[in-house]
Amino acid sequence: MECVRSGALDLGRSGKFLGKSGSTTSCGKVRCSTNLAGSTKCEQNLHGKVKPLLLSASGKARGTSGLVHRSPVPKHQHHLSVRSTSTDVCTTFDEDVKGVSSHAVEEKVGVLLLNLGGPETLNDVQPFLFNLFADPDIIRLPRLFRFLQRPLAKLISTFRAPKSKEGYASIGGGSPLRKITDEQANALKVALKSKNLEADIYVGMRYWYPFTEEAIDQIKKDKITKLVVLPLYPQYSISTSGSSIRVLQNIVKEDPYFAGLPISIIESWYQREGYVKSMADLIEKELSVFTNPEEVMIFFSAHGVPLTYVKDAGDPYRDQMEDCIALIMEELKSRGTLNDHTLAYQSRVGPVQWLKPYTDEVLVELGQKGVKSLLAVPVSFVSEHIETLEEIDMEYRELALESGIENWGRVPALGCTSSFISDLADAVVEALPSASAMATRKVKDTDSDMDMMHYLTKMFFGSVLAFFLLLSPRIISGRERKARVFFTYVLPIT
Ligand SMILES: C=CC1=C(C)c2cc3[nH]c(cc4nc(cc5[nH]c(cc1n2)c(C)c5CCC(=O)O)C(CCC(=O)O)=C4C)c(C)c3C=C
Ligand SMILES: [Fe+2]
């Protein structure tokens, strides 16, 4: 795969903390085009049932029983609805399409792989954390407090950095994510070629190098005419795929080239047969290592999100996760593997409620109940990273053994498993025909989707809080004010 130096990129407007200066590498290429715009209509296929979702520009999702999904496409509206038997991709974009006309030029297909990114050295940890916490899809402040996003990110990243550094130090001093994602990009390019699709693959990370903005810049320089966007998260969450897609939407809004470029976004792909079978293969293989495989508890551990994402913002993540586990277990059952299984959520940050049950608590309970053999299966991410290598392999393993579990195993992340990469390539090929220009549209703010009472309540309490914290110097001294901000926002996250 070609890797392109892209040091000239202006990331200043994105407000990211670059941490280090100089050029970086972004990789990949293909040919295609589409339009990415303000809102996304999406259907979620749960156990064969189609559950409609409406995703706003911010990635917010709501159940939409009244939503007509395949209504006729109005003038100036491009309804992207790529559905294979196993992939949900439905994206609607409005407004005039300016600029690019793909049939006038030779088609050049691009595939943009979106991922989170991770610090490559211990010095990168704090600026990486700053970028993460500065993301309004990670720390969701009420509109009134958005001006605090960056100061809070600075504060939280500074407090969190020592703990994170310890974790990264224990896995060799940095995240393996970039290397693995580049390998996946290479493997995908080869797999696509074997399916007769010449494509350039680009890697765009949300919080570290190569940033999504760099990949986007390269796509434009390479004059890609059709683009497939593939987040490397099997399940959709506002905090992961949603956040990265929002970055794209913001770019598309401002850039006529991208506004006219046909784009197809594969929002989630956990339900693809190839993915489900690849996961089942890995599980079967690791089960066979145990002396009595049939007695092993299959323990799916997914990265958590704060409960409010699912309850208030309509994040489909938990539903998709549960559906994903059911599909993998069905596949195993069809092969005669009838083990017990359970799902829990890991990696919570701070004392706010996250999706339950929590991995650490369930491990202790299982030990107390007399479970002796356990196979941990990381399920929300397809690369090894700090939460598999440190949290599962070290912390949870130790906790499980202390709790009475005697035989421990862990399924590796999919990485470059050939059946999995081949399935991703199929997903790209299937998505291509639906790529369409994603013209600009007024992007709805997250808050505008909120019902009026919720919004007014937030405004009221936000104003009261703002008064006490910021506008009342005589009531609260400067030091106390800082302390209150700290206890309200920072402590829960560190
Ligand atoms: C599906 C995967 C992930 C979800 C959902 C997710 C949500 C989420 N994460 C944080 C906070 C942190 N995440 C960190 C690193 C990190 N997170 C994921 C995946 C998901 N996060 C990955 C792949 C990584 C990178 C790992 C690497 O190897 O570099 C970190 C930094 C590490 C640490 O200090 O623990 C933080 C912090 C929140 C708050 C959140 C949902 C709102
Ligand atoms: Fe995370």
Automatic annotation (TrEMBL):
Catalytic function, reaction form: heme b + 2 H(+) = protoporphyrin IX + Fe(2+)
Keywords of the record, alphabetical order, are: Chloroplast, Heme biosynthesis, Iron, Lyase, Membrane, Plastid, Porphyrin biosynthesis, Transmembrane, Transmembrane helix
Tell me which PROSITE patterns the record gives. Answer: FERROCHELATASE
Q: Which GO terms are recorded in the biological process aspect for this UniProt protein?
A: heme biosynthetic process
Localization: Plastid, Chloroplast
A Pfam family matched in the record: Ferrochelatase
Q: What is this protein called?
A: Ferrochelatase
According to the UniProt record, one GO cellular component term is:
mitochondrion
PANTHER family according to UniProt: FERROCHELATASE, FERROCHELATASE-1, CHLOROPLASTIC_MITOCHONDRIAL
Task: Tell me which HAMAP family the record gives.
Answer: Ferrochelatase
| Transmembrane region(s) | 452-472
What domain of life? Eukaryota
GO molecular-function annotation terms?
ferrochelatase activity
Please describe what this protein does. Catalyzes the ferrous insertion into protoporphyrin IX.
Asked if the record carries the keyword Transmembrane helix, the reply is: yes
Cite the annotated pathway: Porphyrin-containing compound metabolism; protoheme biosynthesis; protoheme from protoporphyrin-IX: step 1/1
Name the protein family. Belongs to the ferrochelatase family.
Q: Which InterPro entries match?
A: Ferrochelatase (IPR001015), Ferrochelatase_AS (IPR019772), Ferrochelatase_C (IPR033644), Ferrochelatase_N (IPR033659)
Q: What's its EC? A: 4.98.1.1
Entry keyword Transmembrane: yes
